[in-house]
Inverse folding.
């Protein structure tokens, strides 16, 4: 099968011709129909995350059709499934036992510890695959598998904020903005300074305001979510939320957070991160995505253009999500 392989961190992905993997007990073999490109893939390629076992096929926003199953899997060939970042958990550590499998000490992540979806086929543990709402086509569904899921978890962590700030308006934010608008909330979008396209994209999705991230918020926010991997935005977001407000960091990696005066945290403001996802998040979010008027903005590229897709994501030249199609 054709695949784009991360041979070592810091180098471009390499086109490779590899054997089709075979499903073991409890696993499914999927023919990949679409795989969205996530900022986490960029962090992996750049060597910014621990745990990568290279060579590795990246990609953890996978939509595919069941081709074959291992022992103990009751799925029919042709069934459409999504494969998210959370690929396996131990079920036995303190976190798993407490219902926090997203924090599992020995979790395996798709496209990091196991091969992912930048390929024609992928094998996954069927217990961690997710159903895909029928009204999304394959490419439109792909960003739901991480941008949507992490966005959903971050939105939940932000609490019932009526005025919500989003820092970084990429794939996750464009989904969260729609969910928040559907709830009747006001969304304030903070984009890269000078990125008029992103600001207009945010306004087109119903945001109340869109402006550069180095400007003050036009109103006091109840909560803010940081999707941009820029540590300097943490004090900016704390300054933008009211007393008791919450700032949620949703990225897996961030540049160093600069020192800031305690006054920004004072007043019972809180700062937290969200990490990974649980299967409960997956089930709840896919259920929601099937019911609310959510549209994902996607641009498809051939699998062989994976390096171009990553370069465009790095430069911020994406509206919504880029999706690789084998
Ligand atoms: Zn565990
Ligand atoms: Zn991701």
């Amino acid at each position: 099968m054709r695949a784009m392989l991360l041979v070592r961190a810091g180098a471009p992905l390499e086109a490779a011709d590899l054997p089709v993997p075979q499903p073991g007990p409890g696993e499914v073999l999927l023919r990949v129909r679409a795989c969205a490109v996530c900022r986490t893939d960029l962090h992996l390629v750049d060597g910014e995350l621990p745990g990568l076992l290279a060579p590795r096929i990246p990609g953890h926003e996978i939509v595919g059709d069941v081709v074959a199953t291992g022992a103990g899997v009751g799925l029919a060939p042709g069934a459409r499934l999504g494969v998210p970042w959370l690929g396996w958990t131990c079920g036995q550590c303190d976190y798993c036992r407490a219902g926090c499998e997203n924090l599992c000490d020995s979790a395996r992540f798709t496209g990091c510890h196991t091969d992912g979806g930048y390929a024609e086929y992928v094998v996954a543990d069927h217990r961690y695959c997710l159903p895909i709402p029928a009204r999304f086509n394959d490419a439109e569904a792909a960003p739901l598998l991480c941008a949507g899921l992490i966005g959903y978890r971050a939105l939940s962590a932000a609490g019932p904020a009526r005025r919500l700030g989003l820092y970084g308006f990429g794939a996750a934010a464009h989904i969260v903005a729609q969910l928040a608008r559907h709830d009747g909330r006001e969304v304030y979008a903070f984009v890269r300074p000078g990125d008029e396209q992103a600001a207009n994209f945010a306004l087109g999705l119903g945001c109340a305001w869109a402006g550069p991230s180095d400007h003050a918020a036009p109103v006091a926010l109840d909560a803010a979510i940081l999707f941009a991997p820029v540590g300097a935005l943490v004090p900016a977001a704390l300054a933008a939320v009211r007393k008791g407000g919450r700032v949620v960091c949703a990225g897996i990696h961030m540049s160093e957070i600069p020192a800031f005066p305690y006054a920004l945290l004072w007043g019972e403001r809180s700062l937290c991160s969200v990490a990974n996802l649980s299967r409960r998040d997956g089930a709840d979010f896919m259920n929601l995505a099937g019911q609310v008027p959510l549209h994902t903005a996607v641009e498809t590229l051939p699998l062989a253009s994976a390096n171009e897709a990553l370069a465009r994501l790095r430069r911020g030249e994406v509206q919504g999500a880029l999706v690789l199609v084998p």
Notes: Residues 38, 40, 60, 85, 146 surround zinc ion (ligand 2) (CB under 6 Å).
